[in-house]
Amino acid sequence: MTVAATLEAILRRDRGRLLAALIARTGDFQRAEDALQEAAASALIHWGRSGLPARPEGWLLRVALRKAIDGYRRARRAEDQAAAMALLAEEEAKVADALDEGAEIPDERLRLIFTCCHPALEAKTQVALTLRTLCGLSTAEVAAAFLDAEPTMGQRLSRGRAKIARAGIAFRVPGPEEWPARLGAVLATIYLIYTTGYRQRQACGRDLCAEAIFLARLLNDLAPDQVAVEGCLSLLLVTQSRALARVSPEGETVPPAAQDRSLWSPALWREAMAWLERAVARRQPEPFQIKAAIAFAQMERPPAWAEALRLYDALLIHEPTPVVRLNRAVVLAETGDVAGALDEVEALALSDYQPWHVVRADLLARLGRGGESRRAYAQAIALASDPADVSFLIKRQAALPA
Question: Model pTM?
């Protein structure tokens, strides 16, 4: 493997951990990103000349800290940066000693999530910053996750970093008194990381689903007995238990009801159920545990559609959003009220939302309105980004009566 390919693989795997460690020491998002980029450029030269170091990720962290010090030296008012330079030099020495003794790079990623999810930032900026900084998605990929233009998302990220610096937001895990204001945004971020990985199975060349599950477990270790964290873990794990069955050998998306259950992971399913039972026992209903319960109801054989509909009604109390209403309409149709479900879907008018066209096409087909269904499938296909979804939708469209 070439030096460039090796470096790329290391950054794909460890960029979030390295960047979190740098931000913890510099207190500056942009300076940390610039320092890591400069360290990577140096690695191409030094590793090509001297060979791969024994601890490549440790080498990158040490060099990035030195690059950050160099950045302070280049500043116009370097005399004002003396304290910061001295502190970074001390941190670099500590890191060097720790790595020489075989220690791992400290995992600062949870602190980074809480910093990105500070209430002073808009919710959208919180999630975007975490995806960009912690998970290493490019600005274009983050923009795609939000259906935004890349320049618009770039400006949002820049404003978010500037606000963190300007407001002096601490890089730390908050105390218990702050959790109610911060935990929801953190869990929303973790869930979006998971769904991004689920939709884009090779996003960033990394398994973002595994990354999200790891972060949820880490959050649970840090603050056990939090019902929302337990519900989130259950939802992620029950969804992940079906991951191998969601795409057919021909590359088509397979709906849960048609999936090969032998491909489901019993271990993940059981763990997800255990987390759900633990959350439900606390008698504090919240959205993640309700969504996990819905997933389990739909996985029963036959699916417990009436129970799922009841759970969606409960979910609407917490999240009265158009997307939840759309998903509820799907379940309503499965209980037998296809016409009523279509009326609810039409009322939502989510013409820019690809799943809305998918649901509408299916309901129209069930009601014998083939021409309208064909046109709805065409719109769904045009808006689909996953090739597996495109293949599935084309097959469904072709199966409509002439």
Answer: 0.76
Omega before 302 cis (within 30°)? Answer: yes
SS3 2: coil
Q: Specify which residues 253 forms β-bridges with.
A: 247
Contact (CB, 8 A) for 231 and 289: yes
The pair of three-digit structure tokens given for residue 67, joined into one six-digit string:
């690059």
What is the mean pLDDT of the segment spanning 177-193? 84
Mind giving me the DSSP string for 31-60?
HHHHHHHHHHHHHHHHHHHH---SSHHHHH
pLDDT tens sequence across 280-295? 999 999 999 999 999 9
Q: Mapping DSSP to helix (H, G, I), strand (E, B) and coil, where does residue 253 land?
A: strand
Q: What amino acid is encoded at 112 in this protein?
A: L
Q: Can you give the pLDDT at residue 202?
A: 47
Could you tell me the end-to-end alpha-carbon distance of the chain, in angstroms, rounded to an integer? 53
According to DSSP, the residues that pair with 247 across neighbouring strands are: 253
Q: Hey, what are 16's tokens?
A: 């979030």
* 149, HSE (Cβ side, Cα atoms, 13 Å): 3
